Amino acid sequence: MTYYPKSKILTNQVATQNMVGDDGLIYNYIFVSNNQYYQGYFYMLYNGKAYTGKYPGDGVNEEIIKLIDDIDAYDNPTIIVPSLTTTPIPPLFPTPKDYEVGVFTRYFIKKRNEFIFDELTKDQYSNVNTTLYIPFQIQWQLVGDSNNTYTTNRNMVLVAEQKSKVPGLSMYLKEDYLKYYK
Do 154 and 103 share a structural domain? Predict the structure, then answer.
């Protein structure tokens, strides 16, 4: 068990389902491992991570995270991940300058405990909650011989799957390795 000085830990916190905060939002805690709601004691570390139990060593300490539901939409609530507060917008497309250079950076996330992928803009990517998601990026070939471009992009996807531990990316991309090719 890891020791934490008292100044680096907040103990004996209580999580209840649908807690309404002073800001008018509903707070819920869920397990990182399975997205199930958590109610009970938890402690929080200096880095913002929260774990079940009153303190480290109090039973099995599983990581939990705080989610926010919009109270106005409580009949049909949607979960908002706090660090992805930007409005979802379509991923960036290559610019004419990208085509001059010949490559384009694509930004992705994969949900840690599920095979759910999404492509993001650069701004969204810089605000990813790394507790929930694995962020990674790929240099995407845009120009050149079509066979070489296909092979290069396929290899970049395979490398990303292994290096970032995100199996299934090629299926998410529908193996369209010539997307944006000119």
Answer: yes
* Residue 119, in any domain of the structure: yes
Same domain, 63 and 106: no
Full-prediction pTM beyond 0.70? no
In whole angstroms, give the CA distance from residue 172 to residue 30: 26
Range of the structural domain that residue 131 is part of: 96-172
Q: Both 54 and 101 in a single domain?
A: no
Q: Are β-strands 103-111 and 133-141 bridged in parallel, bridged antiparallel, or unpaired?
A: antiparallel
Gap between the Cα atoms of 133 and 119, Å rounded: 12
Angle subtended at Cα 146 by Cα 143 and Cα 151, rounded to the nearest 5 degrees: 100
Among residues 26, 56, 27, 25, which one has the least CA distance to residue 43? 56
* The total number of structural domains that make up the chain: 2
Of 38, 56, 80, the residue that ends a domain is: 80
What string of H, E and C letters represents the secondary structure of 56-115?
CCCCCCCEEEEEEECHHHCCCCCEECCCCCCCCCCCCCCCHHHHHHCEEEEEEEEECCCC
pLDDT tens, residue by residue, 9-51? 777 777 766 666 555 555 677 787 877 778 888 888 776 788 8
